[in-house]
Amino acid sequence: MRGSTAGLADTLASGSRAHAALLEAADALFASALVAPAVVTYWKSTWTLMDLYVLPEHQVSSAAACAAFGLCCDFLFCVFQTQLSKHLSPDRGRLTYYVLSRLYTCVAGVACVGAWRGVWNLLNECTGDSARTLLSTTAAATLSLAALRALRNICAAPFAVAVDTPQDYFDVPTMFRTNSRETVLYVLDCVFSVTVVGSLVVFVWRGSWALLDIFLFPDDTVRSCWTSLIVGYALVVVTFALQAPVRWAAARLHGAPRLLLADLYHLISFVATVNVWRGVWGLLDIYFFPESPKLSNWCSHAVSLALLILLNCSNSVLVRGVYIDAEEPAGECVVFPCHYLRLFFHKERTKKRHRRALQAAATASRKSEEASLPLQIPEEKV
Q: Which regions span the lipid bilayer (predicted)?
């Protein structure tokens, strides 16, 4: 669900400003209205199915089993990402690549949800759900992520859309960016990225969500969920609208002020995100076949995942990798990775340029061949 925009601004910078602004707005609308609800639906249905099927009578054992399965899978996918990229590529057969890569997404998606559910519920069992405890754990986790320069990893859809491209389909950036050839350091880096940074992100989400449960109309679930949804999407609109001025400001700042601005902006986007997720999640529980939880969640799981696969952004359901705060140059550090339509049109423009170049080369080659033919002198009349 996370992502980096390093280099994308220069890559996609073409055409008029009005056209670029229109595509940017379309991407924001696409991420907010289509991708985000689908991703939340996938997570909600998968989480609830685990509630129903994974040791439902033993909450602690269920949480521990999910955490163990999820974290182990996340670790393995992180460690073997280079091998996966090498052996699973379109060069070895497009159909084989497509099937196996989407199977990877299915397994990795379940692992991500399992890891989050396990850590989330174990934290509930260990710390309780009092407002004071929630505030302290959430603040501590937020400050820890900020100190690690990893606060942006709390972001998710609608502020992150992962397009399923073969080039980086299996990429999982690690905290310290170690090379896979440095075996011991690389494995330790993967462990730290998956367990420490990943768990801190869960702490922030769990605390924020639980605080909303406590303070936002706790006695009226329907009103609480609708309020979360409305407030969340209102903040989404405001956050996307502020992107241009914040980007302008970030491009003119350096060092700590720039980092502070980026972190503050990501925190605002997170407040919007957690409200949207909580609203969609709760409303699905209330309105979508509430009397048949198994039917409701199996349908939600299948439809949401199929939709994201067809839209070519199924990796948006995955929580993987560690991205460093303000690692991109200038104002790119506050640009959300929501490049979907812009990437599509950029690819189409690139294809057109390539075709024109080939046609021009073919035309030039024909002219050269014609020019090199010897002139035929007409026979003289006898």
A: 21-40, 60-80, 101-119, 131-151, 184-206, 226-246, 267-289
Which residue carries 């035929």 as its tokens? 376
Residue 186 CB coordination number (10 Å): 19
Phi and psi angles of residue 339, each rounded to the nearest 5 degrees, phi first: -95, 100
Q: What is the DSSP string of 155-222?
A: --TTS------GGGTT----SS---TTSHHHHHHHHHIIIIIIHHHHHHHHHHHHHHHHHHS-TT-HH
The candidate with the shortest Cα–Cα distance to 203, out of 132, 262, 136, is 136
Print pLDDT tens along the chain (382 aa): 556 655 555 555 556 788 889 999 999 999 999 999 999 999 999 999 999 999 999 999 999 999 999 999 999 999 999 999 999 999 889 999 999 999 999 999 999 999 999 999 999 999 988 999 999 999 999 999 999 999 999 999 999 999 999 999 999 999 999 998 889 999 999 999 999 999 999 999 999 999 999 999 999 999 999 999 999 999 999 999 999 999 999 999 999 999 999 999 999 999 999 999 999 999 999 999 999 999 999 999 999 999 999 999 999 999 999 999 999 999 999 999 999 998 888 777 776 676 777 777 777 777 776 776 665 555 544 4
Q: Are 112 and 162 in contact (CB under 8 A)?
A: no
Buried b / exposed e along 275-314 (16+ C-beta atoms within 10 A): bbbbbbbbbbbeebeeeebeebbeebbeebbebbbebebb
Q: How far apart are CA 218 and CA 350, in angstroms?
A: 53
| Greatest Cα pair distance in the chain | 115
Cis amide leading into 56 (omega within 30): no
> Which H/E stretch holds residue 71?
helix 59-79
Residue 217 sits at φ, ψ, to 5 deg, of 45, 65
Decide if 19 contacts 354 (C-beta within 8 A).
Answer: no
